[in-house]
Structure formats: C-alpha cells, structure tokens
Amino acid sequence: MATAHNSANNGDIAKTVIMSGDPIRIKQIAEKYLDNIKLVNSIRNIYAYTGTYKGKKLTVMAHGMGMPSAGIYFYELYKFYGVEKIIRLGSCGAYASSVDLLDIILVESSYTESNYSYTLNNEKVNISYGTKEINKKIEDIARKQRINIVKGNICTTDCFDWYMTDLNKFLDRIPKNLNIIAADMECFALFYISNLFNKECACLLTVVDSHYKKEELTATERQNSIDNMTILALESIL
To answer: In the chain, what are the domain boundaries?
Structure first.
C-alpha cells in the first residue's frame, strides 16, 4: 500500500532493503550494482529502486538524515510493506583512538539519550541491538573478501555532534561501560523499530571524521567511500 511518504505499491519493494541517508548515494548503488532496476518511489526525492543482485530481488532506498526522518521509512517498510530485513549503510564520526578514517564499523548496539522510544511506543529504552545472525554473516563475508571491519557499540545523537556547544559534556554523560567508539544519527531508530516488529536489521558505518584525531573527509570523499561496505551488505543478502 502507498503511504504519505512512499508511493510504492504492494510487491514493488523486496523483503530485503538496503538503505542509506543520501538519495544520490542510493541512485549510484542501484545503477552500479543492481540489474533490471525500477524506480518505485521518488516522493520528497527519497529514491527507492527495486532490482536484482545476482538474481536476488532487492530494494535500495534512501531515508534522509536523523531519526525522525529515517524512522518514518523504517517503520513503514516493516509495518506496511512486509519488509523482513533492513541493512543501513551510513557514515559516522569516531570517538576512539583505535578507529581511523575510512574504517568500516559493524554496529553491535546503539545507545541514545533521545526519547525516541518513549515518544513512539511509551517505553524508555536507551540501547537497541542489531540482529546477531546478520552480523555474523557480514563478518564471514568480510573475512572472505579481506575487507577489514571493526565491531563495536555506537551512540545515536539527535543533532550533528560537530555542532554541539560542548561535545565533551555529552561524552562525559555516556556510560563508560558501553565502550562507545563512534556516533551516527539514525542507527538506534532502525534497531529499535526492527525489534518492535520482530524483524531483522544491521548497520554498517564508514568513519568519515574523528573527534579524537581531529580529522574529517571532504564531502566528495564521503560520497565515494562506501564501496566496501556496500559489497558487504549486498553479499550478505545472498
């Protein structure tokens, strides 16, 4: 069924969806990796393409920036379109000295200070988890493809952390036992909504800046840094 945010019809969207924030990135993935692609949504330029990868039906779709935007699409895909699995490909900022620019993080859990779960579902949850079985498959593929990944826990913020008036105060509030290595703005919503509907999910993030090392990629470098994690996500659906 179509929604206010998605014009795709029943059957237009595959059971597995790979998502990323940037619509242009999604267009590039569809054109580079998928066969027989069809544009199934373009409302608000949140592109969704359905095609096949090595014979497997797959949809790739954008979700915008931040949990309020991304959460709409995660929720609707699971609830209204019968999607069983979503893999998010994103970018993140590193918070640990052990993480370098362009490292790929396979997220195990996401912590947030947000009231997202309370507002959506009247429960106060601050940590949500990816699907272990998908993560294990991605690990196996990374080993076979000789793609280095870093497993770890991240935090999901309500605002872009480079714009925080005092990042150190935020970092001091994060429970130290969680060993947070990076931050994004969408992962918690994916994991929480997936668990809400008893579905599957995973999140791969490329490190595009480091608060610890005071480094960051340019916008162009960010755009071109996703090939390896895209391959990991694509191969994991087979």
So the answer is: 16-236
Cβ contacts of 67 within 8 Å, gap of 6 or more: 112, 114, 116, 156, 158, 185, 186, 188, 189
* CA-angle at 157, arms to 154 and 163, nearest 5°: 120
* Annotation: CATH topology of 16-236: Rossmann fold (3.40.50)
Q: Which residue has the tokens 């840094």?
A: 225
Options 158, 172, 209, 227, the catalytic residue: 209
Please give the model's pTM, rounded to 2 decimal places: 0.95
- Give the pLDDT confidence score for residue 209 in this predicted structure: 85
Q: Give the three-class secondary structure for 1.
A: coil
State which amino acid sits at residue 196: L
3-state secondary structure of 176: helix
Q: Hey, which bits of 55-148 come out as E strands?
A: 56-62, 85-94, 104-111, 127-129
Burial (CB < 10 A; 0-12, 13-18, 19+), residue 175, is exposed
| Position 155 pLDDT exceeds 70 | yes
Judge whether 209 counts as a catalytic residue.
yes
